[in-house]
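Example record

Each entry pairs one chain with its bound ligand, cytidine-5'-triphosphate.
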Amino acid sequence: MPPASDLRFLGKRIVLGVSGSIAAYKAVGLLRALAREGADVTVVMTKSATRFVRPLTFEVLCGHPVATDLFAAHQEMLHLTVPERADVIVIAPATANVLAKCALGLADDLLSTMVLSASCPLILAPAMDSGMWDHPAVKAHAEALRGRGVTVLEPEEGPLASGRVGRGRLVDEGVVLSAIEARLCPRRDWVGQRVLVSAGPTQEAIDPVRFISNRSSGKMGYAVAQAARERGAEVVLVSGPTALEVPPGVEVVPVCTAEEMTKALISRFAWSTVTIMAAAVADFRPKRPSLVKIKKDGASLQKLELEPTDDILEMLSKQKTNQVLVGFAAETEEVILSAKEKLKRKGLDLIVGNNVVAEGSGFGSDTNAAVLVDRVGRVTQLDLLPKRALADRILDALRELVVTSKRRAHPQPYGRT
Ligand code: CTP
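Structure tokens for the complex follow.
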């Protein structure tokens, strides 16, 4: 048992809402994890959730009666008193129906009534079939909730109860715990920092229809932008084409090509105190993109001539005054060696190296096992972490470098001091 001071949620009152998905059984594990971290948890179940798991299971584990019925609870006004005392409400799993009710403000059972009367942060961990998660109505509800500051976790991809494989699985309990931590104990240690982040791939036109791009999903850069914003920084996110929601409070500058990304970053670099290049910028682009669609039957595409794009980090490094400059190194082998070499060549303060072909890491995945190498040669190997948790670790490592950068009287790019 860790010392009480190490318990993440000691003294926190958490309402755990459980709705009617097959993933309801996973809420039992989540409840145990919350209790282990010292939280005082009240469980509220929807009627359909009780068909998957008996309330008694939760009652035994949390030590409180489980509330399920609005009318029974009404006598004690539980729909008002429980959320009033709560530090956070977490609904895991959240069905499409619960998501819709929260978005629309419907209150036809105890859980939805509590959500409506609560003023504490709300976290939803959706679980449903991929077809439902992809439905425009569900997407719109998730987006509306995020726009109101509700944390809606992106479900995971994998095998689903229906037998299909797709996005819709309830996230691991570690992801829910990190989300709770971020909402309960937001560290405001980045107030006063102006953070410029790049994310996603770039697209380089071959002709008006086709382009060269890469597998970057943008998730890492978006997670960094979100973490910096939540910790108090002003954040501008220069984003290549992605399918991701812009984190609340982050200003986004959408770009498509490496050239557009270069311009967007160069023009904002002087404003920033920290610039983090998480984008996967194309290294090459077609030399002469065709203005008309290239026909497949012609002889016109026997050879695609490419030219290199500018290395944005190297350009920024040359303009650097006292900004802290961070790069990523996407590698398939010799991660630390390559990361060190890129740190030096690109004049960086910190580089985040990762093996993009390792299990659980790389493009599109929700987790990453990264290694941090800083300008003074420190190497920190991190465990496999959700990208949002990794973003926090990167910001933690940068705090120190930001302070030292401020202290340098006449800061010089790396290697010239
Ligand atoms: N980067 C950049 N401009 C480019 C290419 C990459 O600023 N034209 C940045 C990336 O955003 C990343 C870092 O450089 O932060 C390293 O990118 P990576 O693709 O790992 O390395 P490259 O420099 O492209 O080198 P290589 O492809 O040879 O590994």
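The longest helix spans residues 387-407.
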